[in-house]
Amino acid sequence: MAPPSPPPPGHAAPFPEGAGGGARVTIVGAGPGDPGLLTLRGLERLRDAECVVHDALVPEALLDAAAPRAERIRAPRDAGDPDPGAATGRLLVELARRGRRVVRLKGGDPSVFARYAEETRALEEAGIPFETVPGVTALLAAAAAAGVPLTRRDGASHLTLVTGHEAGEKGAALDYRQLASLPGTLAFYMGVAKAPHWAAELVAAGRPADTPVVVVSRCSWPDQRVGRTTLGALAAGTAAFPGPPPALVIVGQACGDRRPAGTPAPARRTAAAPLSGRRVLLTRPDGQGGEIAAAVEALGGTCLRAPLVRITAPASWGPLDAAIRAADTFDWIVFSSANGVRGFDDRLRAAGRDARALGSARLAAIGPATTRALADARLACDLEPDRSDSEGMLEALLPTMRRGRVLLVRAERGRDVMRVGLEAAGHQVTEAAAYAARPIDRLAPEVESALDDAPIDWVTVTSGVVAETAARVFAGRLGGWRIASISPVTSRVLEGLGFPPDCEAARPDGAALVAAMAVWEAARRGVAEIHGGRGSGAGPAP
Known about the structure:
This protein has helices at residues 40-48, 60-63, 84-97, 116-125, 138-146, 176-181, 195-204, 231-236, 290-298, 318-325, 338-350, 368-376, 390-397, 417-424, 445-453, 464-473, 488-496, 510-530; strands at 25-29, 51-54, 71-74, 102-106, 130-133, 158-163, 184-189, 212-217, 225-230, 247-251, 279-282, 302-305, 309-312, 332-335, 362-365, 405-411, 428-439, 458-461, 482-485, 503-504. The protein has 18 helices and 20 strands. It starts with 24 loop residues before the first strand and ends in a 12-residue tail after the last helix. It has four domains: 25-136, Cobalt-precorrin-4 Transmethylase, domain 1, CATH 3.40.1010; 139-166 and 174-255, Tetrapyrrole methylase, C-terminal domain (Methyltransferase, Cobalt-precorrin-4 Transmethylase, Domain 2), CATH 3.30.950.10; 279-308 and 441-530, Rossmann fold; 312-439, Rossmann fold, CATH 3.40.50.10090. Strands 3-2-4-1-5 form a five-stranded parallel sheet, with helices on both faces. Strands 6-7-10-8-9 form a five-stranded mixed sheet. Strands 12-11-18-19-20 form a five-stranded parallel sheet, sandwiched between helices. The chain is α/β, with parallel strands linked by helices.
C-alpha cells in the first residue's frame, strides 16, 4: 500500500502513525506586544503547548499564558548565521520529531517580515504538518494607536508594506520612484535606523516633503509613544522620534490632522490609577507571574520580570511515586502550592493513572491558586481554608477528621508546620516532594541591562527563598526599592536579612500583594497632598 500523501503546508493534521505520536507544530502570531491582542485560537494553542519557541521581543506576560510546565526556548538568533530563520526551522523539526506539541510564537503576524518562509521550509521538507494562526501585525495596531485610517476613499487607495532595511542577498533595491508615485499609504517596518536614507529617496523621487508621517514606538507596550513629523524632516534628519525601537513609520496624507505630536496613545490606564508610573519587579518563576502582572497593569503600573527561582524536579521522584501508588489509602491529600499539584498530576499521568487512583481520599488546597491548579488537573477540591498558609490549613483541616492518614504534597524545601501540627494531633503523615524551588546563581544579562536602563519602584517578594535570593543577587540595589511581601512568614525572613518590607499582603496571593502596594501608594499621595507636595518617598503616614 502506498503511504498516505502529506497534508498541504500549513494544514493542521495529526502526525501519521509512527511519525511523531500526535505531536504538532503551530506557528502563532503573538501580535505587537499587548497580551490582549493575542487571538483566541492563538491562546488555545499556547495553553496546549509542551514547548514554546519564542522571539526575544515576545513579552513575558504572553509566555505566562502557556502552561507553567511548558518548556520555553528562545529562537536562535546567532549574528554569524547567514540564515537564522532556517536555524529556527531546524529546531522546530527536531522538537516535533521528539513528539512534542510545539508552538512557534512570533511577534506580530507570522507572514509579515518575520522569516516565515525560511522557518517553515524545514518543516515542509521534513514532511511535518503545521498550522499557522495569524496575528495582529504591528501596522494595524500602530494605526489604531495613532488614529490613522490606512486607506481612504479620497486619496489613499493603496497600502504598501515596506521593510526599512533589506536582506543583503536581495539583488534589487527598492524602486523609490514607484513607491513615491503610489496614491496611498506607505508603512515602513524596522525603518527608523535608515529613515533619513529612504525618506530622502522618496522626496527625490517626487513624494512631497510635507507629506505627513506618524511614528509609533513600542506599539501596544506600556511605554508606547506616538510622534508626528513630515517626510522632509525625516529626510533632513531633524525629526525627533518619540521613543525607543521597535518602531513603525506610516507615511501618507491619511496621517494628517490627528492627535498632537509626542503624546502617548490612548491606554487602559490613567494618571489617577494607584500604580500609575510605577515600575514593579516581578520575581516569581517563569510562567507564574501572570496574576501579579495583570493586577499591576490594571492599576496603571508596568512590570519587569526577574525570576529568582527555578521550579525543577525534586532530587528523587521515589517518595512521590510511592505515595501515588498508595493514594487510595490516604484520608486526605493536602497540596501546599499549585506547583505541587502540577508535579503530582504529572507523575500520576506518567504512571498511567488518573483520578480513580485516589479512591476516597479527600483533597485540600492551601489557597485559590492551588484550587485552580486542581481544577486544571480535573481534580475537585474538598477544602480550601480561609487563610492561605500552613496555620490556616491546620485550623481548617483538624476539625474535619479523626485520626487518619494524611499525604502532604509539597516543595522539597519548606516549612514543617503542617506535619508537626498533624502529628501532634495523632495523625499519620507522609510527606512527598513534587517539585523543588532552586535559587538562581546570577541575574540574566538582559535583566541586568533592564535594571540599568530604568528605575524600579517596587519589588515583589513571594517566599522566603525569593527573599534570600533577592538579598544576594540584587546586591546594593534592593535597599533603594520599595519591597512588597506576600505573607508574615516572608516578612520575617526579609526583616532578618535587614530589608523590612514596606507593605504586606492581607492574604498570601498575588491580587492581595498588588492591593497592598496600591494602598501604600494611595497613603503616600495623601501625605503629599496634605503637605502640598510630592512627598518624601519615605512611605505612608503611620
